[in-house]
Amino acid sequence: MNTNRLLGDSLGRTIIKLLVISLLVGMVMSVFEIAPLDVFVAVRDFVVNLWESGWAALGRFGDWLILGASVVIPIFIVIRILNYRRS
Question: How many separate domains does the chain show?
Fold first, then answer.
């Protein structure tokens, strides 16, 4: 397996990019006084609250998804048909 293809760039450049992004994220987390454990606790609390709310929030998400798809999918199909005829 080619590492450039897997990483999207050379190994050295990828490591440097990750180091710079890690430094920036660490600085922002430090400014807002967020610890890594706080992030995991927030995710856990989100899942627990979602479970306890009877999935009502997920139901709203599904409604939005269906509403958006009713517009996006037909437009996508028309665009694909028009592009197919050109080629």
Answer: 2
